[in-house]
Amino acid sequence: MAEISHGGFRRLCDEFGGYDWYFTEMLSAAGVVSTSRYTSWYFDFGPYPKKTFVQLAGNNPDLFYRAAEKILTADIAGIDINMGCSVHHIRSRGWGVELMNRPETALEIVQLLKPLTDSRPLSVKLRIGKEENPDELLRFCNTLVEAGVAFITLNPRTSKTNRNRPGDWKYVDLLRRELPVPVIGNGEIVGRTSYLSRQESAGEGPVMIGRGAVQKPWIAAALKKPESKPEANLQPATGYGPSMLTEDGQVDLQAVIERFLDLLETHQPEDFHVSRGRRFFLFL
Fold first, then answer.
1. How far apart are CA 263 and CA 169, in angstroms?
2. Is this model's pTM higher than 0.70 or not?
């Protein structure tokens, strides 16, 4: 969700309602520590900082510590450590899912950040690992939990599985059964049918929606409606700008596009408007 889940996009989602928590786009720990003309934009934790987790990426424990120290001056929900991104240029730097291949470094990062977060949750986002090995995945997760991780988000694919292949949600079920902390399932939830299918595979539990929320920013509100009602028939959120719904509660896609562009201009620097817009419209 890099270049997508910025403050403007989160506000778009919030105007439809239904989301319990928000996560920022993956932020480089080194980038947070350094100062540039873009730094202030990354510190936009709205629309509700208290329900927003800031996701950090990197592999240097000291930079993670300094970045978290800086971020935690804001009244955010907590810190999320990215140990799941499998994009080539992220893996080549030893970030994301590569931290699962460096368990000592992963553990050190958690141990350093836990005292900083205090009462605020520290979480980790993972994949299954290099290969399907339930015992190794459990061992790795238990180590993180013992060090203070409050919950884990799992995208149940290996580090080499591309997005065209479905994840195996039996691993979400495994972690939910075996770990003493909440486990959030992530991946391929694009509507009610896929949501119910994943819950059937892994038991009831929280889910994280990424690209599905870009395709349908209203997806959380739709999923929280009674199953007997049409998914697209929504109620307008209150306290916001122009409605993105028609009079009969259907999504007005043109209004969604115009609202996103307005929010993009407000919440991202001009240099980023074209690239962020392209990323969004690739999935919408």
1. 35
2. yes
